[in-house]
Every structure is written in structure tokens, then in C-alpha cells.
Amino acid sequence: MSNDLLNNIISEIETRIDSVDVNPEVENVGEVFYLGDSVAKVSGLRNVAYNEVVEFDSGARGIALNLEEHYVGIVILSGFNGIKEGEKARATGKILEVPVGKGLIGRVVDALGNPLDGLGEIKATEYYPVERVATGVMSRKSVHEPMETGIKAVDALVPIGRGQRELIIGDRQTGKTQVAIDAILNQKGQGVTCVYVAIGQKEGKVARIVNELKKRGAMEYTIVVASGASDPAAMQFLAPYAGCAMAEYFMFNKEHSLIVYDDLTKQANAYREMSLLLRRPPGREAYPGDVFYTHSRLLERASKLNDKLGGGSMTALPIVETQAGDVSAYIPTNVISITDGQIFLESDLFNAGQKPAINVGLSVSRVGGSAQIKGMKKVAGTLKLDLAQYRELAAFSQFASDLDASTKAQLDRGERMMQLLKQSVYAPVTVAKQICSIYAGAKWHLDVIEVSKVNKTENDLYMALEEEKTILAAIESDKQIKEETEAKLKDIISKVVELNK
């Protein structure tokens, strides 16, 4: 071989050696050694973080929840059936994120932000982590703006303010979801974006709610996050956090949002299932020791931001189901202690035809009058007192055979007020109308009407007010009942009462 040819071969080899990239890529890879019930145990993942997304060779995805000494416990989010023992799993270095923004409005998505409504891909420009540390104390402002639900019993007696967390609690089939849906319907034109999170609900029920929201034009400002009863426990556990991230986007962008968690009992059950499968030690009622933290870190994210941060707000309406009205059970007491009050729905009231079946005695709002306009505060103050006296007298009158005239009058008044608080489903009432209705009852105008005619009289009053227009407009603009408006209102009420005597 000639020297020239040898030199050419050597220089070619040197050139190739120089062009080789010798910087090795370090990959954090492990191997699956156990599979069962949407949980995988992986050995060899040394540098994985808590809540980090892990991807498998089969395309499945999961999140690392248990960081043990010799293995990592991973809860599978999607593609569990495709995973095999011995398969490789890679840490992505990313915390779980979901799409956020206005592109989600009007859509039905799962806990990962994937569309479920068949309307094409979600056009999202931003992603938020599903877990985020709640806003600090100094970044908040006290709750002072009303978040009107359109439900007379709530707006008058247990008012909700923007940035508040008000628990809706009661047995199954007492109208808990109905209260939340009415609150969403009442946000039309109020500049509030709503997020409804369905956790472990029947698919048929979720479809009915979405259809109802569409029919009433509420999907124009609502996002539905659905994790059905047939979804993995991990998806049911993550759904509220994903919905919270979507609602937070509007709060951080100087807007207002309302989020409904329906319901947190099912989320706690999903978390218990995951924890037991991961072999975490069980505590009371077999729930893991950190089940309180699971709910507190979620609900604390709802807040009213101060003016420096734009004054946005996120109001939360968590729902919790009780067994036989037992509010002292583990999950109900946990959530009651985190929230700013509760709306308690009672089976006995529901069965007696009082709908919404709100027990005024056990329901409370820790924000109170701060979340009411002056006009509502004025008329509702006497209503609370009247109903408290009525409840006390009604309990005693069951044992008394003869009642004096004043006691009878008070019982009659209470009956009329309870009748006045009845409301049809999907029929939120504006605050101006609520004030007029409660004014009529609280100022004894309805005492001459038969109890059975109270609701008809109320509907006639609404129709008369709509025709007259100036009274409702004045209450809406002044936020109170001025003397001139009150005189007009008395006149209309007396005319309507006269017709219904």
C-alpha cells in the first residue's frame, strides 16, 4: 500500500473521530417489576421527583407518587393495559400540566385537558401545573363583592362572596348539584367564568348537565372537567386540581371565576384507593393520613387577590355527600373546617317538598353581610330572625294543643316565609327581584294571603315589576331601596295582594 493512500485513510479516520459526538446523554430509566390495578412499581429511577410525569415504552403515562428506597410507585394515568413487566420507564423531568385559557371555554375535557366533546383539539397557548402553592396571605384581600347564586335562600341567608369557599353538604338526592348548577346559570352576563368539575359521576348525569348548560346558554362561559365513574382512580383524584388550574388562570388575569367540585367525597375515595394500592399506611376509615391536606391544598387556592395583583377572584363551591345526615363524619368535618361556611341540604325538608331543601339553622356563611348589597342586608336581617323564631315555635307547637293568637300569627308568618323561599329548578332569580319578594314577606304584606297562594302571588309580583321596570332598575343601580322606590314597591305589592286575596 502506498504512503499516500495510507495517509488518506488515516486522515479520513481522524476526521470521522473528530466529528463523533462523545458527550453522552444521561437518561433516567427504570424497569417495571410489578403491575396491578393502575399502579406500577419501577426500580432504577434514581432521580425522579414527586408528582413527576413518567413515560413508558408502550406509550403509557403516569405520575410518581411513592418514592421508596428501592423502587418508585407510579400511578398510571393512561395506557395501563399496554404496559408489561420488564418494560422500560423514563422520567420526563416535567411536572404534570394542563392547558388553560379562553380556548377551553365551552368545552368538555378530561383531567389532563384532553377534549371529550368531539369538537377538535383544544387551542391553548398556556399550560399551568395541576399542583400549585396557594396564594400567600399578603397577596389576598377580604371577600367583599357578592357572588349571587340566584337562589333566594342562599343570597338572603347564607350569602357567598367572590373569593369565598362555601361548602354544599347533604345526603344523596337532596339537590346539591342543583344548587351549584343554578349558581352557574346565574353568572350569565356577570363577567364570571365557571368551571364545573364532575368527579366519579355517572356519564349520563354529566351529559344531562352539559345539555342543560348548553340549552340555557351557560356553556358560553363554562368549562366542564369530567372524570367519570369508570375512569382510573388517579384521574378522579387529579380532576379537581386540573379544574382549579383552569379557574386560576382567570383569577391571575384580573378576572373572576367560579369552580364547582362535584363531589369531594368521591375524590377522597379515589385517593384512598390509590394510597392503599401504593401500600401507604391507612388511618381513620382507611383514609391515608394526608387526606386533610389533599383537600386543604386544593380549597386554599380559591381567593380574592388584592388590587396590586389585579383584584381577580376564584370562588369555590365544593360538594360533600353525607350518610344519613351525619355531618360529624371524617370527610365532612375536614372540609367544613377548611371552608368559609356551608349550605346544609336536609332529606326531611326535601321529602316535605321544600326545594331547595336548605336547613337555615345549620347553614352558615362566615363572610355574612360583607357579601350582600345594602338592600338585601336590610330585608334579610328580619328574615333570619323570623325563621329562627318560627323553627323554635314549630318544634314546641307539636306538643301544644292550644296556642294563643300571637303564637299562631308567628307560625303562619313562618309558613309563608318558608313557602316564599321555595324555588323551581334552573330558575335563578335576580337580586333586585329577590329583595322585592322578601320585602313583601318580611313586612307582613303576605299575611292576608293563603299559604297555598304565596307562590302565585310572588310570580304575579315579578310580572308586575317587569312591566313597571323602574323599581327593579332603581334597586339594581342604587344597591338599596330608597324611600321613593319603597313607596312605589308598597303600592305594587298591595295591588298584587288585593288580586290574590
Distance between the termini: 123 Å
Q: Name the poorly predicted regions.
A: none
The CATH class name of the largest domain reads: Alpha Beta
**How much of the polypeptide forms β-strand, as a percent range?**
15-25%
**CATH topology term of the largest domain:** Rossmann fold
Based on the structure given, which CATH architecture of the largest domain is correct?
3-Layer(aba) Sandwich
C-alpha-based Rg, rounded: 29 Å
Q: CATH superfamily of the largest domain, please?
A: P-loop containing nucleotide triphosphate hydrolases
Structural class: alpha/beta
Number of strands: 16
Quaternary state of the chains: single chain
How confident is the prediction overall: mean pLDDT? 90
Q: Domains counted in the coordinates: how many? A: 3
